[in-house]
Amino acid sequence: MKASFDSSVAALLRRVAPAGVVWALLAVPSPSAYADDYPCRVALCAPSPENPWSIAACVPALERLFDDLAHGRGWPKCEGSGVSMNYVMTPFDPCQGGLQEAGPGAWVIEGKSKPKQPTWFYADAASYGISPSASPKQSAGGDAGPNASLACVGKLMGTYRTYVGQYNSYYDEVNVAVYDQIVWQKPQSPWAIDVYQNGRFSRRVHWK
User: Fold this and answer.
1) What is the DSSP string of 113-174?
2) Are 137 and 174 in contact (CB under 8 A)?
C-alpha cells in the first residue's frame, strides 16, 4: 500500500527540502485515500539540506523512525519519492568538498606553504609557514580517545616530527602530517542513517 502525504507539510518544508523530492511526494495520493503519512514525512524530512532535527514538523517522524529501527520494525517506504536509507554506526559525517578522512589517530596540522628546502634535509613546523603558537591535533581513531574530533584533510604538503604531550603526563615523538586544508568534525551520536535520493548519497542523519 502506498503511503499518503499531507500537502500542508509540503508547504511548510518546501523551503528546506530539495524541490524534486517535494514534488514527487505531492504526487502521492491524498490523506483521504491513505491514513498514515509517516513514511512520506520521513522521505521528505531526512534529505533536507538543513538539519532535519531543527524542523519542528520533522521531529515526530524522525523519532518514530529511530524507535522503529531500535525495535526491529523496519524501514518506512514512500513510493515514488526515490528516497532510500540504511543504518550506519559512526559518530561522524562523510567528509565533503573533496576532503578525505585522516588516518585513525593521525597527528595533523594545516600548513601555509611547502618547504623551500627538501624535507629529507630538514623540516619542522616553520618550514611550512606554521605559526609557533599552532599545535598539531590528533584525529579520531587509534589511541586518540573517545571524544576526539575527526580531521577531514585536503592535499598532503609534507610531514615533520615533533614532541607532543599526552594526558598531561609525558611527551611522545610523533609524525605530523601537514595539509593545505583541514576541517574538523566533533563527534555526534553514533546511531545514524545514510539517506539516498535516486541512489545517490544525500546526507547522514544522526540521532539527536
Assistant:
1) S--SS-TTT---GGGGT--TT---EEPSSTTS-TTPPEEEE--EEEEEEEEEEETTTEEEEE
2) no
Block residue for cell numbers 607532543: 164
Q: Do residues 66 and 191 lie in contact, with contact meaning Cβ atoms separated by under 8 Å? A: yes
* Cell (9 digits) for 24: 514527487
What is the residue range of 78's domain? Answer: 7-91+189-206
Report the number of distinct structural domains present in the chain: 2
Residue 31 domain flag: yes
149 within a domain of the structure (yes/no): yes
Q: Quick one: pLDDT at residue 167?
A: 56
pLDDT at 118 over 80: no
Query: Do 78 and 134 fall into the same domain?
Result: no
Query: 62: alpha, beta or left, given left = phi > 0 and alpha = psi -120 to 50?
Result: alpha
pTM of the model: 0.76
